[in-house]
Amino acid sequence: MLNFFVFYYMIYLVLNNEEKGYIMKRKIPKITNSEKQILEVLWDEEKPLTSSEIVGVSDDRTWKASSVHLLLNSLLNKDLVEVAGFKKTTKNYARTFQPTMTREEYSINQLRQEQRNTSRTLSRLFNALLKDEEDDDLLKELADNKILVLIMSLVVFWALSFASMRGMKFGKYFTSVGALGSVVPTVCLIGMAILAVVVFKKAPSASEYTIATLTPKLNMNSLVAISGITFAYTGAEFTANFASEMKNPQKDYPRAIMIAAGTICVLYVIGSVCMTMLMPTSEIFAYTGTLDALVIACNLLEVPQFFVQIVAFGITLSIFGAVVLYIAQPTKMLFGYSEPGIFPEKITKKNEHDIPEKAILFQAILVSLLLAGVAVFPAVETIYNVLITMTALTSLFPYVLLFAAYIKIKRKKVDKPGLYQMTKNKKWGCFLGYMELVICVIAIVCSALPVMTTFKENVVYEVEMIGGGLLVIVSGLWLWKRSGLKNKTFEIE
Predict the structure, then answer these.
(1) Fewest Cβ atoms closer than 10 Å to its Cβ: which of 185, 200, 265, 453?
(2) Is the pTM of this model over 0.90?
(3) What is the residue range of 202's domain?
(4) 204 and 271 within one domain
């Protein structure tokens, strides 16, 4: 009991005798439990650590390893940690972090900040800590609440589904805003990275750029990644279904495709390089890489963090725009342009906007049932993941048929008024078609390579991947044969 009163009296002296300079007075911003854990790790280790080292020594943590960059950048913005220097990791440089105050200084300043009445200081501190705990738990509860996530997902998906029924005359507003939401963040990242690292030299480049580092490593992981890279550049052909809604599609559509392809290629390459200037490749995560890099750039250039929130909102809008297109395009292509007899007429009937709206409604209902199943029944999620794996291989098969058809058209020298020709030269056209066909086949083969750690996992993976592809192909052939259109010849209109 005596020790307690001695401790309390010491706290009282510190809080009420600031002029004696025992502890430098400093305002402590509000932090989450996850941010506090980061600080605890740095205090315990008593030396500057990289983000990877923080993850490595943090066995008992509530935050995900992929979130450490966001947490560190938040602490940097709150001036609770600082960059101590840079540490070489393999071929890159990683930032090291250290707290800006000791654990004792943090505690005393927190006590002082909470003080309004000396007799109630400790109770107020306890209540404040409890509130932080509750807020953090509330956020976790909301994120883990499958019913809430399900409701929000359904609301967004159904809203975008109804928007897609209006065709591109209405959907263009979503896609246009979405395009800005994806292009603007990349442009901002490029500009801010160059300013921070090259112009103002706020920090050295996080990566080294040599022939060795820029040369791709030909291993199993890189070969499998080829299919993902190839798929990342697909999607432009989706817009062909809406070319009829353009005023001058024969002239404007090819021009739009070429401009879009060039822009995407430049932004992909330069944006990736600028991201590695700010972050080592080992610290870049697929879903948060752009935002993580922007946060670092904002800290270096002393730009308010609110800017990153605006960018995140823009990225969200870009996703909405992409979803509108991805909802309408497959449905319009599969049901709207299918030959009579393959699917029931009721589901293929188009509305005044040239969209098979009943097919979109059917798709929305099917997606809703699947989402509900995943949210309510854990086993359904496993089935969902299996379905994703089964369809991954087949996503590139349509392009094989597309290139094969193009080669056949060029070899027969089909020349009709209004038919767009990439080139009038037969040999050059066939060469381009074969080149694209080979690339696509290589991507398909690479995507089916075994990437699991055990033999059993690889067997299951290959069965799902190859078996799913064969199932989709066989189902399509069965529908084609069932329709009675197997022996019908189609002319290009």
Answers:
(1) 453
(2) no
(3) 147-376
(4) yes
Within this chain, do residues 68 and 168 fall inside the same structural domain, yes or no?
no
Residues 6+ positions from 380 with CB-CB distance below 8 Å? 370, 373, 374
pLDDT, tens digit, 9 for 90 and up, residues 303-325: 887 888 888 888 887 778 778 87
Looking at 376, 404, 423, the residue that finishes a domain is: 376
Express each pLDDT in 324-360 by its tens digit. Answer: 877 877 777 777 666 776 777 788 888 887 888 888 8
